[in-house]
Design brief:
lyase, binds the ligand C=C(O[C@@H]1C=C(C(=O)O)C=C[C@H]1O)C(=O)O, chorismate lyase activity, about 30% strand, globular, EC 4.1.3.40, about 190 residues, Chorismate lyase, alpha+beta, about 20% helix
């Protein structure tokens, strides 16, 4: 019987045999994703979906070292390239980190977080990991719902490839996860 790995098996590098070749540079480029998209379209914009206290999924809680049931600040956005959604992004910040190291989190609204994360020399990025999400994962459904609301005609694939990493500022962690939507394939690599 074929045992499928859990959908949230995060990998240090995309398996080339199973990853669409167009996605590999998107999954592995450690620089700002907003900047990478901006270099490949006329205009990048951010559609803020939600920002507030919510629950982390188990693998997020584990990586952030959260206590069972601990709620965190969650920001979810769609990144749009020339008004077409190309990324569903989900950023998590433990509540204890909000006022201290990460007071940037509030008030960002429709401005891309990347502008702040990559401008502050006190912020460092840990290595990226990638994943192929499917309908077993709540994040797949959140991305799918966001895309359906913004672009009802776009078919959502059965799997979404994504990446994530921790950003640290004064030893306090913030987690950014980014899941690539079908229109990313229409941008140059
Ligand atoms: C981390 C970055 O910021 C981007 C913008 C985000 C936002 O505004 O919420 C979230 C994730 C990223 O895709 C980046 O540009 O690399």
């Amino acid at each position: 019987m074929l045992i499928r790995p859990p959908s949230e098996t995060w990998l240090a590098a995309p398996p080339r045999a199973r990853t669409p070749s167009h996605l590999i540079p998107w999954l592995t480029d450690p620089s700002s994703l907003t900047a990478r998209i901006r270099a490949r379209c006329e205009r990048v914009s951010v559609n803020l979906l939600c920002q507030g206290l919510a629950s982390a999924v188990p693998d997020e809680a584990k990586l952030l070292g959260l206590r069972p049931g601990e709620r965190v600040w969650v920001r979810e956005v769609l990144l749009l390239a020339d008004r077409r959604p190309v990324v569903f992004a989900r950023t998590l910040l433990p509540r204890g980190h909000v006022r201290g190291a990460w007071n940037l989190f509030h008030g960002f609204g429709a401005r891309p977080l990347g502008a702040a994360l990559f401008a502050d020399p006190a912020i460092s990025r840990a290595p990226l990991a990638c994943v192929r999400l499917d309908a077993r994962d709540a994040r797949y459904h959140r991305a799918r719902a966001a895309l359906a609301a913004h672009a009802p005609s776009v078919l959502v694939p059965r799997e979404l490839w994504g990446r994530r990493s921790l950003f640290h500022r004064h030893d306090r962690a913030l987690m950014v996860s980014e899941f690539f939507l079908p229109a990313i394939f229409d941008l140059p690599r």
